[in-house]
Design a protein that fits this description.
This protein is of the alpha/beta class. The protein is 37% helix and 21% strand. The protein is built from twelve helices and ten strands. Strands 1, 2, 3, 4, 5, 6, 7, 8, 9 and 10 form a ten-stranded mixed sheet that branches. Helix 5 runs parallel beside helix 6 and helix 8 runs parallel beside helix 12. It is globular. The two termini are 31 Å apart.
Length: 299
């Protein structure tokens, strides 16, 4: 049976992770046919396609899962999602040209900021971060462009800053090679303010030299991204995909550095049980539970 995985736009991080996941899965005879599908609206689109039976797995940012479960906007109806396995915890960050007079995130007030496609998860993240810091979208000029178009607009001086997805990603790498950039930091205490307001964020550090022009460590916020499925997807299929991820966690990090630290995301299962991965109140799929027990991660 073909396994269809919903990801993101071609230049997005979910798409690159989906291709790495395909490599790991297709080594198992029972998972020999994996199709990686693009998505213009990533998390939202993938949840809706799971409900429609158009895919068996989808990448989502953890902040969307509970909203889909309870039919909170933009979801029109409850979606019976199930958690499969975490994928990564990646920094969400703003960038500007190196010479721009933008020194902190709150300096974006009054500026033109490329925040992602209007229906994308990035826009929701921007609302959450700015809202926690007391800023509204009316306090700056949001520009609704995808990652590649937003990068081009920043390079051309058509926007003052761009909201970027976790690195490494091709768009960010290419942009940093052609334009001198600055990763915009937060003022002291602002990251803690954001995390108190938004429980699905974690603190992280973008390490120096991770991209050209990043000359020192910069603290940022990160969101946990996950692979989800639907309650109707057969247990053996979910078991086999999750088992492949557990067994191949180290190699996934070698294929795509976005997966680095995947073992760290699985480790809380030992102490906290299934609740460690049940973001937004969405339970683990029975097939995933079986895979975690077999791997010794659950009692």
């Amino acid at each position: 049976m073909k396994i269809r995985i919903g990801t993101s736009e071609r230049d997005g991080t979910f798409h690159s992770q989906g291709l790495a996941l395909k490599t790991i899965c297709e080594r198992r005879p029972q998972l020999a046919s994996v199709e990686v599908l693009e998505s213009r609206s990533a998390s939202v689109d993938n949840a809706n396609r799971l409900q429609a039976g158009e895919i068996e797995f989808g990448f989502m940012a953890s902040n969307w899962i509970g909203r889909a479960k309870t039919a909170e906007a933009p979801f029109a109806h409850p979606i019976d999602l199930r958690m499969a396995v975490p994928m990564n915890a990646g920094p969400l960050f703003f960038i500007a040209r190196a010479g721009a007079p933008i020194r902190t995130v709150t300096d974006l007030r009054g500026k033109r900021v490329a925040v992602g496609l209007r229906t994308s998860g990035m826009v929701q993240h921007a609302h959450a971060i700015f809202g926690a810091l007391g800023l509204r979208f009316s306090d700056f000029t949001p520009v609704y462009l995808d990652f590649a178009a937003g990068a081009d607009a920043l390079a051309a001086g058509e926007v003052d800053a761009q909201f970027q997805c976790p690195i490494p990603n091709k768009v960010m790498t290419d942009l940093a090679e052609r334009v001198a950039l600055r990763v915009i930091p937060y003022r002291p205490g602002e990251i803690e303010t954001v995390m108190r307001a938004v429980p699905y964020y974690r603190a992280t550090v973008m390490r120096r030299h991770a991209i050209r022009g990043l000359d020192e460590d910069v603290a940022q916020v990160a969101v946990v991204n996950v692979l989800v499925t639907h309650a109707r997807v057969p247990e053996p299929m979910v078991h086999d995909v999750v088992a492949a991820v557990i067994a191949g966690a180290g190699e996934l990090g070698e294929i795509n550095p976005l997966f680095s630290g995947l073992q760290d995301l699985l480790r809380p299962l030992r102490a906290q049980g299934p609740a460690a991965l049940e973001f937004g109140g969405v339970p683990l799929h029975a097939g995933a539970l079986q895979a975690y027990r077999e791997a010794g991660l659950l009692g």
